[in-house]
Amino acid sequence: MRKNMRLSLAAIAFLMAAVSCTKTAAPEQEIKQEISQDVINSVKALGFSTSNIIADEGGYIVEGDIFIPANELNRSLNGAFLRVGDVEQYRTTNLVTGLPRTITVALSSRISASVYGPVLDEVVRRYNAENLQIRLQRVSSGANITFDRASGSYLASAGFPTSSGNPYNLVKVNTNAIGSGTSTTFINYAATIFAHELGHCIGFRHTDYMNRAYSCGGTATNEGASTVGAILIPGTPSGPDPNSWMLACIGTNVNRPFNANDRVALNYLY
Fold first, then answer.
1. Cis-peptide, bond into residue 234, ω within 30° of zero
2. How far out from the chain centre does Cα 195 lie?
3. What predicted TM-score, i.e. pTM, was given to this entire model?
4. Which of 36, 90, 95, 189 is close enough to 11 for a disulfide, judged by CB 3.0 to 4.6 Å?
5. 3-state secondary structure of 55
6. Which stretch is the leader sequence (predicted)?
7. Is 239 helix (H, G, I), strand (E, B) or coil?
8. Is the pLDDT of residue 253 over 80?
9. Within 10 Å of residue 106's Cβ, how many Cβ atoms?
10. What's the Cα-to-Cα distance from 162 to each of 12, 93, 198, 203, rounded to whole Å?
11. CA-CA distance, 50 to 43, in Å (whole number)?
12. Cα–Cα distance measured from residue 45 to residue 229, given in angstroms and rounded to the nearest whole number
């Protein structure tokens, strides 16, 4: 993901995928030469944009930051939409079940606890402040979700909940790309990235997946599934929301705590 990076955020997932945020995108022409029409068709059938698909080890990166394993390309797409206003579109399928439950989170030994410990603590605080049926608890090891160090050209990655109702168990973060610091600005910025990836782990897809141009710029595209059968959540605004924690793109040092619409969606699901 670039400095104006593509981050992952807003609806519920349907397959075990991993979500990654690319820091630097390859030239569009090169990407298209690597992708077969069969793969493009499969990606579109899954409800993802076919623009700039990137071949990656074991699968493909779509929408700038979502990794789909190659063996998941032919999965059928089933699920409902949650609509929060006209722009925010949340799609649901697999969710974390067995509620209420505590989800433990930890940093791996490969990530600096002095730098990222306060970041993870802020993520725990943000989620637990919402009094959801899932609560986060930081542990030192053996966690349900582990934040581990990643390398390469992406900012962070995560997956969607399993079909058995468990959260995806690994978030990879590129600490070289994210940087380090002790300031409140850095902690909030990094916590937004961590919270976004954890959102994928519990089933949220990008808020603006129906129109990624909203947060990422460029031409508006909508290659996702239709809104037939959408669940309109009452009491939410009809206009766009520029501050959701699950928007697809985010700028450097931007802080996105949960806003009112995010809270509606979180409480509706959990």
1. no
2. 9
3. 0.78
4. 90
5. strand
6. 1-25
7. coil
8. yes
9. 20
10. 11, 10, 14, 9
11. 6
12. 17
**Percent share of the chain, pLDDT over 70:** 67
**Per-residue pLDDT, 70:** 84
Rounded to whole angstroms, the Cα distance separating 255 from 195 reads: 11
Residue with token string 């940087």: 179
Task: Give the pLDDT confidence of 140-186 residue by residue, as tens digits.
Answer: 999 999 999 976 667 888 888 888 999 989 898 889 989 999 999 99
| Rounded Cα gap, residues 39 and 246, in angstroms | 26
The pLDDT value recorded for residue 91 is 64
CA dist 62 to 17, 65, 239, Å?
11, 6, 27
More confident residue, 37 or 93: 37
Half-sphere exposure of 192 (CA within 13 A, CB side): 26
Report percent pLDDT > 90 for the chain: 37
CA distances from 252 to 14, 91, 117 (A): 30, 27, 20
pLDDT number for residue 200 = 87
Question: Which residues, at least 6 apart from 178, have a Cβ–Cβ distance to it below 8 Å?
Answer: 155, 156, 190, 193
